[in-house]
Protein 1
Amino acid sequence: MIEKSSIKIEAEPYPFALTAASCALLILDMQRDFLEPGGFGEMLGNDVSQVRHAIEPNRQLLMAWRAAGLLVIHAREGHRPDLTDLPEAKRKRGWGKTSIGDHGPMGRILVRGEKGHDIIPELYPLPSEPVIDKPGKGAFYATDLHTILQNHGIKQLVITGVTTEVCVHTTVREANDRGYECLVPHDCVASYFPHFHEVGLKMITAQGGIFGWVSDSTRIRAVLPKKL
Ligand code: TIU
C-alpha cells in the first residue's frame, strides 16, 4: 500500500504536503520540436539550447517517480496531419518562413506522428504511461486529462516541462482552477527566455501561492516512497 499520509516538501511560498498516492507527475511537451534544432521552437526564432538543461533533472525525477510506482502522464503539443484542429490564428502567428504543418528536418512541424513531435528519447514514455496529445498550450484544453486524473483519484500534480511561461504556466492555471494542488520543480522547467522563467515561477508563488508551489526536484525525490 502507498502511504496515505502526507510528507512535507520545502517549497515556496510554504511547505507542500505531498500525498504520494494521489499525486501524479505531469511532464509537458519535452518533444524534439521544442528541444532540438529544426523544430517548432526554433521556427519561432528561439535558441533551443536554452531549455536543454531541464532534461537531466526531469530524467532523474521520472526514474524516481517510476521507482515509487506512482502515476506518470506525458503531454505533447501538436496537431492532426490534416491540420483541422489548428486554428488559423495559431497557424499565422510567428511570422517565420515556415508554419505548423510545413516540412522541416524532423518531419512536418508540430504534427502528430512526425519525429519532431515525439518525446525526446531521454524521457520516452513507457507503454503504461498515458500520453496526452493536446492542440493548445494547456494540457486540459480539448483533452481527456481531467478524466484520467479523476479516474486515478489524483488531487495533486507535480508539473514539469517546457516552456515555463507558456505551456507550463497555462497548465498550472488550468489545473489550479480544476482544484488540483500544483507543485513545480524549478529545475525541471525551462524557457527560451531566462527572465520569463524567473518571473513565471514568481507568479505561481506570489500572493500566498496564487497558482501553487515551487520547489526543486532533489527535494521531491528525497521524500518519494519506495516501490510498493
Ligand atoms: N513558444 C513557447 O515558448 N512554447 C510553446 O509554444 N509551447 C510550449 O510551451 N509547450
Protein 2
Amino acid sequence: MSSIKAPRGVRDILPGESWKWEHVFSVTRKVAGDFGYREVHLPVFEHTELFSRGVGETTDVVEKEMYTFEDRSGRSLTLRPELSASMVRSYLENRMDKQHQPAKLWSAGPMFRYERPQKGRYRQFWQIDFEAIGSQDPLLDVESIELSLELFRRLGLSNLEVLVNSVGCPACRPVHRKALQDFLRPRLKELCESCRGRFDRNPLRILDCKNPACQAITEDAPSTISCLCDECAAHFDAVRKGLAMIGASFEVDNRLVRGLDYYTKTAYEVLSGELGAQNAVCGGGRYDNLAESIGGPHTPGMGFAAGVERIVLTMEEQGCSFGEPPRCDIFVVHADDSSLDAAVSALYDIRRAGMAGDMDYTGRTLRARFKTAGASGAAFACVLGPEEIASGKVTLKDLRSGEQQAVGRAELVGFLKTVL
Ligand code: AMP
C-alpha cells in the first residue's frame, strides 16, 4: 500500500460503483433532453470574485468553505463550490442572451467545499446542475422542480420530501429582515455563536440553523412568506398552483432559506428519508439578481443542483435498479503458447465487431485461464488450441450451460452476433 493517501473528504469512485454513476448520468441526459435542456461543460476553477460576489460574502460557502489559491501570476482562483454562478457567467460571457430565451442548460461535475466530512458530505462531490436563464415566468420554477422530481422518479427513488418556500426579493426582504431581527433581539443571547454572528450580517440564515436551541427560538419567528411584496406573493401563488396542477406533491416550508445568498422568490429542496443528517438530495431556486451581482445586466434565472453521491447512496439504500453492470461478452482462451497469436487475432476481430472481449494476461496455466474466463462474467469462452487452428475452427463454450460447439473461424464474429 502506498503511504500517500487521498486527502480527507475525497473519494475514489471505483469500477464497482462507477457503473452505477453512469446509469444516473444516462437517465439524467435523457430527462434533460425531454425537458429541452442542453449540456455545457464548465471550468473547474474560476476567478474567486465570481463566487464571492455571486454566491455572497456572508455565506458559509464563501466565508469558510472555498478552496482558493493564487496561480503563478498572482491571480486569485477558486475551485468551484457550485455551478449556478459559473453557468450565469458563461451565459453572459457567451452572449446567450442574444439567443432564444430562456437558455436551458445543464452540466455535471465535481464541486469543492472545505466542509467537515461525514456520510453523504465530502470535500469533493459531484453535482448534476440544471439552470434556465432569461425568464421570470413562474412556470419555469414549476418546470425546474418537476424536472428534478421526474429525474428521481425515473431513477426509482421513493420516500422523498419536497419542500418549497419563497424567500422574497430585494423589495420585501428588508421588511422580513427587520421583522426577524425585532423578533430575535430580546433572545439574542440564547442563540448559538454562529447565529449571533449572523444576526446583523445575514439573519435569514438563523432560520436554517440546525442547533435545537436556535430552532426552538425561531419556532414562531416571522416567516418570509408573511412579508412578501405583491409581486413575490403572486409569483409564489403561481408556482404553487402550477405544481398542484401537474400533480407534483410538495409542502410549503417556511424555514427553508438555503445556504446561498443569491436566491430570490422560489427556494426548494428535496429530502431523502434514507440519508440521515445530510438528507438533501437536491436544492435550488430562483436567482433573479445573480447576473447583476457579478456585473451583468438584470437576468432572471431558476435552477437546481442534485448531489450524485447522495442520489447513489439513496438508490442503494432503497434497492433501486442501476441496470446491468458492464461485462465481458467473450473471453478468449488460448490452449498453449503456440495458439496465442491466433487467440489474440480472434480477440481483436471480436472487439472490432463491437462486442466486449477479453483474455488472460497473467501467463498462468490453462486451468487458471478458464477460471478467469468464468470469473469475468462472460457468456462464452472462445477456445483456440493446435487442433482448432489445424481445422480452421474455434471451440465456443457456453460458460453458463457448459455446452461446447465448434464454429468456423471465418464465421466466428457473425455467429457470436446471433447468439449474444
Ligand atoms: P447546494 O449547492 O448546497 O444547494 O447543494 C445542492 C446539492 O448538492 C445538495 O442537495 C446535496 O445533494 C449536494 N451537496 C452539497 N454539498 C455537498 C457535500 N459537501 N457533499 C456531498 N453532496 C453535497
